[in-house]
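Recall from the previous lesson that a structure prediction takes nothing but the amino acid sequence as input. Here we apply that procedure to NADP-dependent oxidoreductase domain-containing protein from Champsocephalus esox. The sequence below is the only information supplied.
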Amino acid sequence: MSSSSHSVLLKTGVQMPLLGFGTYKLVSPEDVSRAVDAALLAGYRAFDSAAVYLNEAELGRALKQLLPKHGLTREDVFITSKLGSKDQGERAMEGALHSLSDLDMGYIDLYLIHWPGTQDLEITDPRNSGNRAESWAALEKLHVQGKLKAIGVSNYTPAHMRELIQSCKIPPALLQVEFHPKFCQTELRKVCEEYGVCFQAYSSLGKGDLVTDPVVLEVAKNCERTPAQVLLRWAVQQGVPVLPKSSNPDRIKDNARLFDFTLSDTDMDRLSALDCGHKFCRDASQVV
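The prediction returns the following tokens.
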């Protein structure tokens, strides 16, 4: 089954697939092309990049070459990219235009501020807050121009979200953060729900650590699925979009098989009970 029928509605009126393909660490043109080809074949229709991944140009090129092969057009795919923290603030417009130019796909479906801090500033520097606001204003302009179809943020805390929502002209459509059974982000999800912001997961497998967790392994064995499928299904069953990443064609295919099974309430509860506030990725909670 194609993942395209499984999507969430962003507040801009755009449908975004629940399943996206993460491209972090895919850099060489050959690796990007091979992975994108396998992903399109497996039914992925959303692709997630970022300025700091250094692969926007490669992703754009691969999609332009491969979409016709799969009988698809630009409008059939959803592309996300992100503003690097080095461009936070007065360089935000330049940074976003650089992403648009590198991807060279006409427009970007969703563009995010990647990190609440600014490169080369201390996390306690009050200028971080002003830079975030300036970046957001630049994204709002490009959104109005139709170059960024939806805009949002990544790695923001509840405090960052409230600050943004109180000061922005256009509210964020989406927040992308680390989310998995060991880090359920209850408060952050409530903030997103309150303001109608789509909550999207990255690092669903806890950098690979969670696929060997005894509870995850037991649930996977009982429903005859891979641990990765169980972890990804746990999120999408809650309406949370996911971004599994792999360069292995078989794994890319396996990770897309999330919509032909359901986890029982008991299994969902067992997985959620693993929540212990454990982060595997960089922590933004101290950024002012």
